[in-house]
Amino acid sequence: MRRTLFGPAALALIAFTAPFAHAQWGYPFGYGGFGWGGFSPAVGYGIQAAGLGMMASGIGNYNLQTAEAARINVNTVMNLNEYMYESLRQMNRERMQARLQRQQNLNQAMRETQERLRSNPTQQDIYSGDALNVLLTELSDPRYAAIVEQYAARIKIPGSLIRGIPFNYARAAVTFGLDKLTNAQPGPILSRPEFADDLAEYRRLGALLREQAKDDDKVDPETVNQFQAVIQRAADKLKTLTGVDEAQRMQAQVRIKALLGLSHMLEGPSLDIFLAELRPDQEVGLDRLLAFMRSFNLRFGTASNANQRQTYDQLWPKLVELRDEVFGAGTGTLPTDPPRAVSEKALEDFYSGMHPDELHPDKKPGPPPPPQPAES
């Protein structure tokens, strides 16, 4: 089985993009009011933060460009992407285990199912989105981002194909990280008696959100609101706390910002806002679709009508073509492969560069209107 990390290519991409990655971290480039014409050449697919489109849209902040962004560098984005990718793989493993739990040899059944989905899917496997999501898992591994982008840009698809995809928000992957972070060691400040009720409540709500999203990626908006209210209560309390070590206060602030930022990844507007200006006859590279899905934590949902099934019939061979270009006779990382070690610190490091005011929805404008089509 051939597995190549393409380290030099990835490093070359990072070296080229690093000077530009600081000033515009907050929003996925090329969508919504900014057009589907593509990213700035200075911004690569590999350093685009996973799920940040969901967070930006959740707080109504569609163009985050602040001085604070300079503190979020390429490494923190890559670490976040690795964490979110592993969360997605954990979600896929758990769902596959749940479907096959009555099989006598669970591990063997999972391997056989995965191989069928990857190499010889049934029509139902494709229309359910399961087969496409196995390919998406292979192609989304951050370690292969540079080479995937290189080949994907050469494969063109019409805008009508993208607009026909039944996208699913992968909220379960976000709640996986949220649940882990709420149960991590809280540090000296948040361990104080003043925060005992907050700690217990946000841990309870974090577990509840994960349970809600486990099967179908849906969460109760009221639970999200309750979670955010508890986190905000702890943040307000932290501001008024006196006589504490400032380094420890900063540590607690970072945890609170990470929890609040992740909670906003569970929100988001209708994707119609971001697909509105993608013309049906407009051809874009497959890399644009993959980047869009990464930015909004999207997966392939179930094709429930004839148009969506036709979309998958056309998209499946394109993804197979890309996978074969990238991996040849080998494979990328699959849902049932052993998990890689990731740390919740990746979440805290990423959000640490944001000012607390940037995480309040009532202080942000709505999305920009799509531009008017040019007159011919």
Commentary on this structure:
This protein is mainly alpha-helical and 376 residues long. The protein has one domain (13-359). It is 54% helix and 3% strand. It has 17 helices and four strands. It has helices at residues 7-17, 52-58, 74-100, 106-119, 123-127, 130-139, 145-152, 159-163, 171-182, 187-190, 196-213, 221-240, 246-264, 272-275, 286-295, 306-327, 345-351; strands at residues 156-158, 167-169, 283-285, 298-300. The strands form two sheets. The protein has a two-stranded antiparallel sheet with strand order 1-3. A two-stranded antiparallel sheet has the order 2-4. Helix 9 (171-182) packs antiparallel against helix 11 and helix 9 (171-182) runs antiparallel to helix 13. The model is unreliable at 1-47, 58-71 and 363-376 (pLDDT under 50).
Helical percentage: 40-55%
The oligomerization state is: single chain
Distance separating the two termini: 53 Å
Radius of gyration: 21 Å
Number of domains: 1
Report the total helices: 17
Q: So what's the overall shape?
A: elongated
Uncertain parts: 1-47, 58-71, 363-376
Total number of strands: 4
SSE order, as H and E?
HHHHHHHEHEHHHHHHEHEHH
* Strand order, largest beta sheet: 1-3
Mean pLDDT: 75
Strand content: under 5%
Structural class of the helices, strands and pairings?
Answer: mainly alpha
Describe the largest sheet: 2 strands, antiparallel
